[in-house]
Structures are given as C-alpha cells and as structure tokens.
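Worked Example 4.2. Consider the chain below.
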Amino acid sequence: MRPQYESQQDRNEEQRIAKKIAAAAGLFAVKLPASYRLDFAFHESSTSEQIRLWAEVKRRHNNHDAYQTYMVALGKWLAAVEMNRVTGLKVLFGIQYDDGIFVLTLTEKALLDMRPFITFAMGGRRDRGDSADIEPVVHVPLHYFKPL
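Applying the procedure from the previous section yields the following structure tokens:
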C-alpha cells in the first residue's frame, strides 16, 4: 500500500482555501471522499444541497508566477474533465500561492480553448524517493488562472 503523505495540517489548509473560494462564489464547500479524485463539491446553501460546481484545491509555497505552468497529475485532470462532461458543472482548480488564490475554471469550452496550449509529460515530486510520485502530468499555462 502506498504511503499517505497528506497531513492533518494539509487537510486543514485545504479546507481553509475551499471556504474562501466558496465564499467568493456565494456557495458552501463540502469535502468529497477520496474515491472522487476531486477535493470538494460546492452547493447552494445550508438548506439546499444542490451541487453547483466541483473543485480541486491546492497550496503551493511560492508566488503564482514562479513557474510558467501549473502541473497536475493526468489522473486528476481526467477526473476533472469527466466530472464536467458527465454533470455539466464547472470544475475549479483553486490554488493558494504565497501571493494569493488563483482559479482555473474548467468547462467544456475552456477545455477546447486550452487544448492546443496544454502539454503532457512525465513529472512529479522527486524529493521523497517514491517512484510512484513520477507519473503522467498535464502542464496548464498559468495565464488561464485568474485571481480570486
């Protein structure tokens, strides 16, 4: 079984970021089970649990312009694309950087517009000595991310 690297502090940080994004959208964030591959469902209100969008939330400890692209595991990207395709709901990639939260809104149209500019490669973390950290990834140009 693969080690779990996510700490309780990481989960708390993710929850804090999701709450900020949800507040900006006028929605409520609910953590999804790991089997969904995405982190959160955002619903209308405390009385209506109708889901309005999905989200993947990350914390990066650098400024948003430190790299030219945002790298995400291909499996995570495929889960986001499939959630959008099946439900018709937007999928947000919300990234907390040292200089603010930036959001990519994934829709069918956005995906078509981005497709010529995203690239696929092998990548991932190399600092833990875990060969499973290296996998197919997607590089999304940062100009698709907008400040929250």
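The chain has one domain: 8-147. The chain has a mean pLDDT of 93. Compare this with Example 4.1 before moving on.
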